[in-house]
UniProtKB/TrEMBL annotation, chains A, B:
GO molecular function list: lyase activity
Protein name stated in the entry: dTDP-4-dehydro-6-deoxy-alpha-D-glucopyranose 2,3-dehydratase domain-containing protein
UniProt organism field: Amycolatopsis orientalis
InterPro entries referenced in this protein's UniProt entry, alphabetically: EvaA-like, EvaA-like_sf
Taxon lineage: Bacteria, Bacillati, Actinomycetota, Actinomycetes, Pseudonocardiales
Domain dTDP-4-dehydro-6-deoxy-alpha-D-glucopyranose 2,3-dehydratase: 31-228, 256-453
A Pfam family of this chain: Hexose_dehydrat
Length: 457, 457
């Protein structure tokens, strides 16, 4: 079979899975009780510790970078950022590697199911969320932490027994990570997979449904889901919004004009960031055991000591980023001539490795940002717009503490021209998803929102 | 027209241009005299100056980085590199931007021609080579150097009058550049283009022919040419080698298996490089006015003062990299079951931004490298192999001094199995060219060699 043929058959099978909104092997009716039981089964404590007393971590002489004494895991360094939205300096996570975020998939009753697990991460607001089958930093899979081996990792490393259906390298949150990437993988197996009580097989339709719940699918699960291809179903639902969405999924695809517009923006940008020692970052200080901005805004870097008997490593200490305020991530969409269009923003962030990436229409960490980002007020207070998706989602609980952001898709009134500033562009859903087939074109916030949009088909 | 349709029609038109090995408007018969005249017309002097006395440049306090006093243009910083071939430290060019390398194309007699120019660069061994229509750093096109405007730049910046046929972001030499990229562009115009005596319209077939000459097409021209798509002509030449090459151009394309193999290699790598101050780079020293390795090997960073009355800026000083020895870049190819296959090496270099890129079979800067790279001896002394391409080419004369490397394509005896080490893989020409449609997948040395291979069709 050709690559294109394989892709299309994979997309068709995943479409079947997306259309299955319930499953006989993991009925929706049993989900809440299962998840509550698993949440209760994990005992853990997360205790704040001043960074200066964080076991195993220290500030490097000279640079002042915060690093583990082993030199492994991750660290914090500094970055000086120049963008069209202003210049600033900030601490940033330094973890230059490609981790693995993987879902195992298997057919049950002819419908692909995905293996997720209830997993605790120290920074999650509710600690336990649904994670991918495997979530492994390079340190994890090389066993840098000397803990138990990561279960199911063999599906994702060569020589793997199954068939790789999705394998895309995508960036982490570029506002806070300096070029860190993950492989977003889906690997199919036709063998029985040994699972424990924390695991559950869910269809794509069930997972899309859970994306509407607050703080349930962790950011690793969301980014892998965003890479799962589906085929456009017929635009015959009778609902003008859904039909317009399905037409937008069918096309048009990425064309030269779009790529050149995107490249023009990249070429015109100042170089985004230069690294510097953490000690040299202007405007930030060590106070109350954490690193904070003099204004008290943006975020703090804090330390925690964790005990988690159910994790591969049962006890550890680490720094986390604690945002000062919730963020607002919004996608404006509009039916135009019967096809849904999506307003995306080509933007650079502190850790962007490609100068600019497509982000959602609105991406702000702090509604006090000045100037207020274009149309942030429409996302915050939709007014005449129709809210098509609205949820609170947590960012990577292994690196962020209580980082809960609002994700919202708002549909503007149909067929009215909307003037947009430089750097913004209307895309079809097909174009947005095609761009996501390549690394560093669509940021992680937009990927979650595009999945949320897709789930309303 | 769809994007795929446009691409295919563009490829078909460029195929016509590739088949035109001579042109009535720029006959081959007149080329040598024209080029000699243009070389003689450019007067210039390039004089060595110790880095410590280089006007406008200085070593930054603290880091020791070499920078222009304006903070613009480019600089040298340090990098600590870890690869599967060993660990080392080295100076590296720090120029985090996306420049423009552009060819204007226009039909003459129904055949697309490309506008090249005889251009002087201070580091070229013969000073004048054939360059792209436009070669502009971000500083150039924002007029950082306050010189004359770059002629023809308007074709490549919005709002551009013509049609963009090629627009690909590709990396510079990642052995010596830290993440620097260029947009490789071809823009079509149907209007008359004012040109001077240094300009010449050439077909793709003529340019491919000139690639067989030593030190004639500069590295900017070579990388843009490598991005020009062509369609596979029929495999009916009667020559088994050429027919096998044409079949290899027709397919197979990139499949999931290839991408996953490539990603496996990226994921397994150590993070390639960490920057450090130039003053901290171990094993290098300032001596005789340049920066050199203690062993005298690898390369030196030297200063030059340039006078070039025919350039946009007529007088300037700058540092250049001067390699200690010529490099050897070799591609091994083999007919297997009637289809040509190409042995590529997934490798990381000091400035690689994506952990690994595909390079040629052999890429060594110094035949004294230990261990000798796989099959370097076969490229150096082909023995039973057939040499399909052999030329000396200069690297970017705006950054390198006398950097002349041997580029060689060697065909191994057909249909004999060749065991290859980890990290090496046989690709079809179609696969190699498909990978090149994305940034950071195929390095600049391999891009030149693949174009050289293609030119033998």
């Amino acid at each position: 079979m050709t690559a294109a043929g394989l892709l299309s058959s994979t997309a068709e099978r995943f479409t079947r899975s997306a259309e299955a909104t319930d499953s006989p092997i993991s009925p929706n009716a049993g989900f809440a009780a299962w998840f509550a039981a698993r949440s209760a089964a994990h005992s853990y404590t997360v205790e704040r510790v001043p960074l200066t007393e964080l076991p195993g971590w220290g500030f490097e002489p000279g640079t002042g970078d915060l690093r583990h004494t082993s030199g492994r895991f991750f660290g914090f360094t500094g970055v000086r950022v120049r963008t069209d939205r202003g210049d600033w300096e900030q601490p940033i996570i330094d973890q230059p590697e490609i981790g693995i975020l993987g879902l195992v998939t298997r057919d049950f009753g002819g419908v692909p199911h995905f293996l997720v697990q209830a997993k605790m991460e120290p920074g999650n607001t509710n600690l336990v969320q649904l994670s991918t089958t495997v979530q492994a930093t390079r340190g994890n899979y090389l066993r840098a932490h000397q803990g138990l081996p990561t279960p199911h990792l063999e599906h994702f490393l060569p020589p793997r027994p199954g068939r790789v259906l999705v394998d895309r390298i995508q960036a982490e949150h570029s506002q806070w990570f300096l070029g860190t990437h993950n492989r977003n993988m889906v690997v199919e197996t036709d063998r029985s997979v040994p699972i424990g009580p924390d695991h559950r097989w869910l269809t794509l339709g069930q997972l899309w449904g859970l994306l509407g719940h607050d703080n349930l699918l962790n950011s690793e699960t969301r980014t892998v889901l965003s890479c799962v291809p589906v085929a456009a179903p017929p635009a015959n639902t009778g609902d003008p919004y859904r039909d317009a969405l399905r037409r937008s999924l069918a096309g048009p695809g990425v064309d030269d004009d779009l790529l050149t517009w995107f490249n023009d923006g990249k070429g015109a940008m100042e170089p985004v960031a230069r690294t510097c020692g953490l000690a040299e970052v202007g405007g930030w200080r060590l106070a109350d055991g954490g690193i904070e901005h003099e204004s008290g805004r943006h975020f703090r870097v804090v330390g925690v000591r964790v005990e988690a008997p159910t994790r591969e490593v049962t006890r550890w200490s680490q720094p986390l980023i604690e945002p000062a305020t919730p963020g607002l991530y919004g996608l404006l969409v509009q039916r135009f001539d019967g096809v849904l269009r999506i307003l995306m923003h080509a933007r650079a962030d502190a850790g962007s490795s490609r100068f600019t990436e497509f982000g959602p229409t609105v991406q702000c960490c702090d509604l006090g940002d000045r100037p207020v980002p274009f149309r942030a007020e429409v996302v915050a207070e939709p007014g005449p717009g129709v809210v098509r998706h609205d949820s609170l989602q947590s960012e990577k609980g292994g690196r962020f503490l209580n980082a809960v952001n609002r994700y919202r898709v708002v549909e503007l009134p149909a067929d009215r021209p909307v003037p947009v500033p430089d750097g913004y562009r209307w895309l079809s859903l097909r174009q947005a998803l095609d761009l996501m087939a390549q690394p560093d074109q669509v940021n992680i916030q937009a990927r979650t929102l595009l999945t949320a949009l897709l789930s309303t088909w």
